Fold this protein.
Amino acid sequence: MATRPRPLSPHLQVYRPMYTMVLSITHRATGFGLALGLALLAWWLLALASGPAAYARVYGLLGSPLGFILLAGFVLAFWYHFCNGLRHLNWDLGRGLEKASARRSGAVVVAATLALSAATLVAMLHFGARS
Amino acid sequence: MSLKTPLGRVLGLGAAGGGSHHWWLQRVSAVALVPLGAWFVVALVTLPELGYGTVHGWLAQPAHGLAMALLVLVAAYHSSLGVTVIIEDYVPQPAKKLTALLLAQFLHAAVGASALFAVLKVAFGSAA
């Protein structure tokens, strides 16, 4: 018997992007990005365990301008997922679920992400001056 | 009126046979990652520099090695839970879904084990 393809629920492309929805999908996207960041962390740790030569290779790549851009992306993703994760945990306690409150906490998350990322990146740039 | 049997109500499982367990473990690991993640970023940016000797000496200290081991294990676990949901949501074809799920689990195990092994090697290895 031929089975008709089952109907699927409407997906991203049929909705007009909205503020809270964009924040939600960003949480998932940054989470996936951080999965790749974890692989990078493992690679860095393995290089550290392998010795100075292996570490210098990874350090050289991550210390390059392209490496800095990559790390800046991971820093942004980390702080966004961190802050929005706290927002999720608060929701899990049954708090802040009303529309106005959810929109407000979303703005707080975006502001906190930018502030924490900027502070982290400034501290990272200072390595050049310190070393 | 509920049509659930008393046993079904006690077990609390829907038609899927499960659900809250994955959700709960995702939260437990998320809570653990709040201090671990913050520690990692703060520790990294407050080191005087990131050369081999400095970082190796820092990670070789027991407290730092332990925190890093916890971080990579919990992060790999949390990540595998999250990526599993993404695959379940976006890969509808059963064969592709199974392949992707297996691959994601294996890769997470590999990444977690590699990172843990590296931390232990730095912790227990002779000072280089």
The domain at 20-130 of chain A is CATH 1.20.1300.10 (3 helical TM bundles of succinate and fumarate reductases). Chain A is about 80% helix and 0% strand.
